[in-house]
Design brief:
The protein is mostly beta strands and 171 residues long. The chain is 2% helix and 54% strand. Strands 1-2-3-4 form a 4-stranded antiparallel beta sheet. A 4-stranded antiparallel beta sheet has the order 5-6-7-8, with no helix packed on it. The model has no long low-confidence stretch (mean pLDDT 89).
């Protein structure tokens, strides 16, 4: 990665593998114990803007510059699914603890909740007036939080997508 900044990273749940996306959108897999490069994934992953391992570590999802999310089987590097719906770049991505649900946030100011097994969008959440830049699920997967360029943090119910709370101001 000489001369490239790291723009996104995800540590596998078992702590053995670190996935990184550099400023040129090249994705690398690193062996945490040795610090050695395991694999360069540019041709497989695409031009990634964000990425996350599933909670069981079996899948790696990557948000791409083409406004899609591609989900890969980590053991075989076979593409398991492609999800489309955002109209601008995906900037946040996270899996629920049980792994069958994930959410994405984008520069289109929306958050989308996806069902990995059914391979479809379960909900489109509106509420932010700026790009959704951060996203994380609670440990039980019942709620998740989104942070936006509009200087708000919103808490959402994972089932149904209702807004639980909104915090504004100097966060």
């Amino acid at each position: 990665m000489p001369g490239q900044g790291v723009r996104e990273l995800s540590l596998s749940p078992d702590g053995r593998t670190l996935a990184t996306v550099c400023s040129d959108t090249t994705t690398f897999l690193w062996d945490v114990a040795s610090g050695h490069l395991k694999e360069k994934l540019a041709k497989r992953i695409g031009l990634a803007t964000t990425l996350a391992f599933s909670s069981d570590g079996r899948r790696l999802a990557a948000g791409n510059v083409d406004n899609t999310v591609r989900v890969w089987d980590v053991s075989t590097w076979q593409l398991k699914a492609t999800f489309a719906g955002h109209t601008e770049k995906i900037s946040a991505l996270g899996f629920a603890p049980h792994g069958g649900t994930f959410a994405t946030g984008g520069y289109d100011n929306t958050t989308r909740v996806w069902d990995l097994d059914a391979r479809q969008c379960r909900a489109i959440l509106n509420g932010h007036s700026g790009a959704v830049l951060a996203l994380d699920f609670s440990p039980d997967g019942q709620i998740f939080a989104t942070g936006s360029h509009d200087e708000t943090v919103r808490l959402w119910y994972a089932e149904g997508g209702a807004n639980k709370a909104t915090w504004t101001g100097n966060l």
